Amino acid sequence: MRSVLLSNGKNIESLILDERPVPLPSEGEIRVRMRAHTLNHIDLWVLSGSPAYSVSLPHVMGSEGVGVVDALGENISPEFSMKVGDAVALSPGQGCLMCELCRSGSESLCPSYRVLGGHLPGVFSEYVCLPATRLLPVPPSLSPLSASAVTLAGATAHQGLVVRGGARAGERWLVVGASGGVGHLACLLAMLLKLDVFGTYGPEKKREILSRFMDIPLVSHEAPDWPEKILKLSGRPFDGVLDTVGGATIPRILPLLRKGGRAVVVGETTGSPTQFPTRELFGRQLSLHGVYLAHRSDILAMLDWVAKGDLSPIVSDVGPLASISPLQKAYRRMSERDFVGKLGFGWQ
Ligand SMILES: [Zn+2]
């Protein structure tokens, strides 16, 4: 079988398509024949040698994927049992499953929480063996790429907007970075939840692409005065801001909120803020939430929206992988932010 392997260096050039034996499922594991994968920013952190994801080489890449149950190991708990042929999505992150946080459904807060492809070997292989607890049922009719797109990025959008942000119908929300993986799914979800949603994007060419998928007011956050522009467009402060760009933008998003408003930060791709607006935070009684990935319930909620046909992730297929070069090209596009939505591939 083929696997996408980071071989002897932490850079895009060191990716190879490796041939290896099909693995056998151990006790409690299920083998999945993978159908589709989507790329995540975690992959780029691994490829750049980020200390947050200090993997040892060689390393199988990838956090996101869906497939079909292919073989069952011994002693699988009936609660997580599946049949050969069942369509499944992989849960990218998982805790110990035993502590109070895990049992109450808040596994991303578990001290043992680890992410496939980031802290653990990844899933970009034609066959993957994983603990049965990491698999989620997927309606067989679902597009594999669409399903894969919501297992991490979509679930993070759900966790940020609904669970931590507490967004309610009729509220006005701003999504900073509306063209990215989490951002575009947050906008689509916000529209479904009947929020009044506004968005920002980077380069001007992304506006036209985004407008094809969502009819929302948009401003480029590359303009130095974008906060003033979006506030003028809105006519009033926002109830909430979901910031997928994060970091350096924090001092600029807090003044956009009404008194008591909520800011949710899910990334730091623009670096760290040089100043923190403490007075904005306490003086206007704002809430600031940090969200790192999501829980199993977030993935199931998003898969349900996609299955009902209400939510269609924007996914560009860069495969199939006859060689490694389409994937290397896709990662270069990601690092240059030259894409909208998600990038993905399937196995032929
Ligand atoms: Zn735990």
Radius of gyration: 20 Å
What structural class is derived from the secondary structure elements?
alpha/beta
Strand content: 15-25%
Mean pLDDT: 94
Helical residue percent band: 25-40%
Number of domains: 2
CATH superfamily of the largest domain: Medium-chain alcohol dehydrogenases, catalytic domain
Query: What is the CATH class of the largest domain?
Result: Alpha Beta
What's the CATH topology label of the largest domain?
Answer: Quinone Oxidoreductase, Chain A, domain 1
Point out poorly predicted stretches. Answer: none
Biggest sheet statistics = 7 strands, mixed
DSSP helical segment count: 10
- Give, in order, the helices and strands: EEEHEEEEHEEEHEHEHEHEHEHEHEHE
Shape: globular
Number of strand elements: 18
Based on the model shown, name its key terms.
2 domains, Quinone Oxidoreductase, Chain A, domain 1, seven-stranded mixed β-sheet, binds zinc ion, 348 residues, globular, six-stranded parallel β-sheet, Rossmann fold, alpha/beta
